[in-house]
Amino acid sequence: xxxxxxxxxxxxxxxxxxxxxxxxxxxxxxxxxxxxxxxxxxxxxxxxxxxxxxxxxxxxxxxxxxxxxxxxxxxxxxxxxxxxxxxxxxxxxxxxxxxxxxxxxxxxxxxxxxxxxxxxxxxxxxxxxxxxxxxxxxxxxxxxxxxxxxxxxxxxxxxxxxxxxxxxxxxxxxxxxxxxxxxxxxxxxxxxxxxxxxxxxxxxxxxxxxxxxxxxxxxxxxxxxxxxxxxxxxxxxxxxxxxxxxxxxxxxxxxxxxxxxxxxxxxxxxxxxxxxxxxxxxxxxxxxxxxxxxxxxxxxxxxxxxxxxxxxxxxxxxxxxxxxxxxxxxxxxxxxxxxxxxxxxxxxxxxxxxxxxxxxxxxxxxxxxxxxxxxxxxxxxxxxxxxxxxxxxxxxxxxxxxxxxxxxxxxxxxxxxxxxxxxxxxxxxxxxxxxxxxxxxxxxxxxxxxxxxxxxxxxxxxxxxxxxxxxxxxxxxxxxxxxxxxxxxx
Length: 490
Known about the structure:
By secondary structure, the protein is α+β, with helices and mostly antiparallel strands. Helices cover 29% and strands 24% of the residues. It has helices at residues 6-17, 251-257, 261-272, 315-322, 339-357, 359-380, 404-421, 423-436, 444-454, 458-464, 466-471, 485-489, and strands spanning 50-61, 66-76, 83-88, 91-98, 103-104, 107-109, 118-123, 130-137, 144-147, 159-162, 182-190, 196-199, 212-222, 228-231, 234-237, 242-246, 280-284, 293-294, 299-302, 330-332, 440-442. Strands 5-4-8-2-1-11-13 form a seven-stranded mixed β-sheet, with no helix packed on it. It has a five-stranded mixed β-sheet with strand order 15-16-17-19-18, with helices on one face. Helix 3 crosses helix 4 (315-322). The longest helix has 22 residues, at 359-380. 49% of the residues are buried.
């Protein structure tokens, strides 16, 4: 996710680049093999029974502002127990059955607990493999945004999009809403013609006359990467593996703005290995989208505010693309470990921008990030526990941990490691991290152990002060100095 809205730093970046010359357009066991960590933001109990696949069949009701249908879960009853625990919030559960023959079974909803919602506890048997839940969302579902035609670029058709991060997937699908649990999925989405549906999955490139769309996500993903959008959309290819979806009046402008995306993909692959998600497409959303971007696999959701007309704000694309390795491929196991997603991605984003647009451009972005971090530290307080990389968000909304600390302090920490051990050696290490734990979720402790065992010598650990950076507040005094002459002139 990109929290920094592109419009917020467009002016200073435009001033800064105005004078620029042009630039060319295994020591740790896999998590989940034997155990899942305790997640304070989920009712699920995946160590007892875990979801491995989701089949989703939903109809989109624009007048009623509801999604109506069925979620069919393939489960692994690891402990041979009698219950499957799922996360829900503001869902209406109509019926629950087991197996392909839909045998009736009991279920109950627990007490509501604020943003966590309510646990859905389903009676299962030791051999249960499939659980079917008929349900519908409510108009106030926090993940689902219903836009009237007047809120779109075209002004003719309504629009729908979802935002599942951090723990909002449970407001439109009953599932184990923790980043520690990964599952594959298939979906059938029924929408009113001539609207098009797209998801974080293999997508169509043209509208279906009957409004019925089938999707498949063969790689296992965590719940927060479940995404759906429905609207008056068109597709334009911008390379063999990349393209853009947008409203008809926006799509050509977006395709021009994102023309360098194939170069970004190639740059990322040169550093950290093959892109493992098939295609990388971008959906440009209406202006009400609340973030800069969201890294939904195969289909980044992006704000239209990055369509500056000069490609000056496409670092957002580099950021969301980088998530295809750091976040989507290797994921934070709990929201206390959020920096493993965003700190890595911010560092990786800067490296992509350096390769595609040059070192000066990358330095400007890094300087802006350091300024954001300094402002955040002042606001939170230098000794605040929320300025640590490893957070403690128990009893709080995990969105409170989505600050510049995770992004920019995390990136500074990785930059310090790079400067200490050398870029070539650090790149080999990061490549090994992504390869070793692909399609898995990891904790901060897993990373620190892997770092110490597979990269840093004792002397380097002392010089970097690893534990101070990860578990201590504020920014340590050995932080790399980030300077940009053009930002200084601006």
